[in-house]
Structure formats: structure tokens, C-alpha cells
């Protein structure tokens, strides 16, 4: 195991006091330490937003990319450098508004990356507009645009797309979040972890406490390999915390595996082309 501080850069987070992203950063560094991943073997990719500042606070191969494009960039990094543990991070606005078109394809390609979506149900960096996950009642209460637009359920969305690992967490439950991120990194394929992370500036303390009160631990008898049970839990009005679904390893291999074979074949062809037994034109 490694100390979580080994993964922190010298930059001090500029998040607002009380922001849920602090907990996610702590849980992620602890999970990486639990798995004894060297910092130089970690790739961190983000889009744009409050939570997307996280790569700057990590001691890793970090890239704060463009809005909504964290997943294709993270997938490319993993395919180019399969030796890296690649983690993509972002918010609900980055991942489910401008970036919503990338999530389905990242899931179906099943590249071995972990995607942590910090869901506070609001656009915090741009002053509190409604996001794709803002509840209709909340929009009406605050006078935000889009009061008739139903919010996206990120967990149900991931399950419906066939994601092989889907988990729900809350930024106030550090031990569970640490465990879930650790399991997501260990999963051999695309892993999705949605973290409920409240906004200390544009959401009241009462609202954040209401969200926490709607959280439940998954039932002890829940079978994470049962996709129907996972869907039923995702459709409830409460937030079920834990691993809702984990695809059995024998059902579908990671998409990145064929690329490893292709790379090995390419290396073999290159070695053959350099074999000195081939005729050499000295003219």
C-alpha cells in the first residue's frame, strides 16, 4: 500500500469550502494507494467544470481536456498506454450534457478505464444553471430554465447502455466511496461510478441533507450480477449506494484486449523486417 498523499500535487484545491469534490479526491487517492499503483502509472483525464479541476491536484499523467470530451481522450490514452491505470473524472454537466454522446460509445467499446461522475445536479462553475440531472421541482423552486425537462438518471442510463460495472456513491461516505472506486479500478473494462457531490455555493445545506437522507445502502442480499435487480434499484426514488451491477467476467472480454494482440503482431512483424537473414542491397 502507498500513502494517499503520494498522489497529490503541490497545487491546493480552489473548490469552495464544503464542496463534495474534496471527498472524491481523498477517496480516489486512497483507493490508488490501496492498490499500490505507482503515481507514474496513473493517467487522469477530465473535461471542464469544478470537478474537472481534479487532475491538477493529482501527481499523475494529468490532462484537463475540453468540455465533454474526457471519455474519448481517456480511451485513447488507455489504448496507447495499456500499462497505465486510467481514470476519467467530470461532472454531470460535462458528462451528460455536451458529453452525453460519448458515454454510450465508451461503454460499448468497454476500454479498461474508470469514469467517476460527480453529480451535484447543477452547473456550478457557470453560476448555478440547471444541468441534465437537476430535478424538475428544484428547477421550479429556483426559477431555473427547463422546468418541464425530465432529468437524466445517470445510473439507469449506464445500465441501459450495457455498462459492465455501475456503482452509486455519496461524497459524504468516504469509506464506501474509497471501496467502490477501488473495485471500479480493478474491474477489467469500462467502470462507471456516479458520486452524489453537493454544491456548497448554489445548493442549500437543507437540500444537501435531503439528498443524503434519500441515500440507502444496497440490500445485503443484492446480487450485483443480476442486471434486472440492478435496474429495479436504479428506478427507485431513493439513491442506492454500492455496486448495483458487475458483469460476470466470463460474459464479455474487455474491448482493449484485441488491441494487445494487434500490438504483439505488429512487434513480431517489425522484428522480422529487421532480421539480418533478409537479403541486404549494398549498392
Question: Mind explaining what this structure looks like?
Answer:
- The chain is an alpha/beta fold and about 280 residues long.
- It contains ten helices and eight strands.
- An eight-stranded mixed beta sheet has the order 2-1-3-4-6-5-8-7, sandwiched between helices.
Please describe the topology of this protein.
Blueprint: H1 21-34, E1 42-46, E2 61-64, H2 70-80, E3 85-91, H3 92-98, H4 103-109, E4 114-119, H5 136-142, H6 154-160, E5 165-170, H7 174-186, E6 191-196, H8 205-213, E7 215-217, H9 227-234, E8 239-246, H10 257-273
Parallel strand pairs: 1-2, 1-3, 3-4, 4-6, 5-6, 7-8
Antiparallel strand pairs: 5-8
Helix pairs in contact: 1-7, 6-9
Task: Supply database-style keywords.
283 residues; 8 strands; eight-stranded mixed beta sheet; single chain; 16% strand; alpha/beta; globular; 35% helix
Helix content: 25-40%
Number of strand segments = 8
Q: Helical segment tally?
A: 10
- Gyration radius over CA: 21 Å
Q: How much of the sequence is in beta strands? A: 15-25%
> What's the SSE pattern?
HEEHEHHEHHEHEHEHEH
Distance between the termini: 59 Å
Main β sheet profile: 8 strands, mixed
The strand order across the widest sheet is 2-1-3-4-6-5-8-7
User: How would you describe the shape?
Assistant: globular
Low-confidence stretches: none
Q: Which structural category fits the helices and strands?
A: alpha/beta
Mean of pLDDT? 89
